[in-house]
DNA sequence: TAAAAGATCGACT
DNA sequence: GTCGATCTTTTAA
């Protein structure tokens, strides 16, 4: 079963299965501990909501690719495309534990403790050395590889909650993380988030 | 400890 | 011209 076939399922189904997976780029490898599902056309929180644009084109391609975008002009955030082809599903890689290339990751983030090296999507992208040029990389054949876990994280260790920092659709509990893992990032609600508390 | 603000630039309208 | 699936530093309790 190919990587793309394993990822050819709805984002909400694939997201928890990515916990414990390892993303490797050069010397650095990160074990994923926190992800978020983005459903695509029906999800106001997704970049794909409203149809294809120059930025989100990768989301409308096949599963098993890396979707990278620039956040706040500074940080590269990474997603894995999932679901059916032309169905713009994706899973945001929110946080992880650096399991290889610790010296390289430390050099890229000199002011971080080891725990914080990839604790947050912007930090994760920085630790791995991602750039916008990495958008669209095939994770089965390219320089960046995704290794799914031999044994999935048990469902009893997976926790869910609302996605972090979104203004739209901020109440959907589509964030998944490994319970009690120290590298999971803290939840922050968007200051102007829409939803129950926004009125 | 929590909240606020500044940084910074490609994508979008 | 405005905005953001963020991070860091500063300021206030």
List keywords for this structure.
single chain, 199 residues, alpha+beta, 3-methyladenine DNA Glycosylase, Chain A, DNA-binding
- Major sheet: size, sense and barrel closure? 8 strands, antiparallel
What is the number of domains? 1
The gyration radius over C-alpha positions equals 16 Å
Helix-strand sequence:
HHEEEEEHHEEE
CATH topology descriptor: 3-methyladenine DNA Glycosylase, Chain A
Average pLDDT taken over every residue: 95
Q: Just name the CATH architecture.
A: Roll
What name goes with the CATH superfamily? Methylpurine-DNA glycosylase (MPG)
Stretches where pLDDT is under 50 for at least 5 consecutive residues are none
Strand portion, in percent? 25-35%
The N- to C-terminal Cα distance equals 47 Å
Reading off the top of the CATH hierarchy, the class is best stated as Alpha Beta
SS-based structural class?
alpha+beta
Principal-axis shape equals: globular
Enumerate how many helices there are, as a single number: 4
Number of strands: 8
Family: Belongs to the DNA glycosylase MPG family.
Organism: Nocardioides simplex
Protein name: Putative 3-methyladenine DNA glycosylase
Keywords: DNA damage, DNA repair, Glycosidase, Hydrolase
């Amino acid at each position: 079963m190919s990587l793309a076939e394993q990822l050819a399922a709805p984002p909400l189904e694939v997201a928890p299965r990515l916990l414990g997976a390892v993303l490797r780029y050069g010397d650095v490898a990160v074990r994923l501990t926190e992800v978020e599902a983005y459903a695509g056309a029906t999800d106001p929180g997704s970049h794909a909501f409203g149809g294809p644009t120059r930025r989100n084109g990768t989301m409308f391609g096949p599963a098993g690719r890396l979707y990278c975008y620039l956040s706040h002009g500074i940080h590269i955030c990474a997603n894995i495309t999932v679901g059916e082809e032309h169905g713009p599903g994706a899973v945001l890689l929110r946080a992880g534990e650096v399991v290889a290339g610790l010296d390289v990751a430390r050099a890229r983030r000199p002011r971080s403790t080891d725990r914080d090296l990839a604790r947050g999507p912007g930090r994760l992208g920085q630790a791995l050395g991602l750039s916008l040029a990495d958008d669209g990389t095939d994770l089965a054949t390219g320089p960046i590889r995704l290794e799914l876990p031999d044994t999935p994280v048990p469902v009893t260790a997976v926790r869910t909650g609302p996605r972090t920092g979104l203004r739209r659709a901020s109440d959907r509990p589509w964030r998944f993380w490994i319970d009690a893992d120290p590298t999971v990032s803290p939840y922050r609600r968007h200051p102007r988030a829409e939803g129950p508390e926004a009125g």
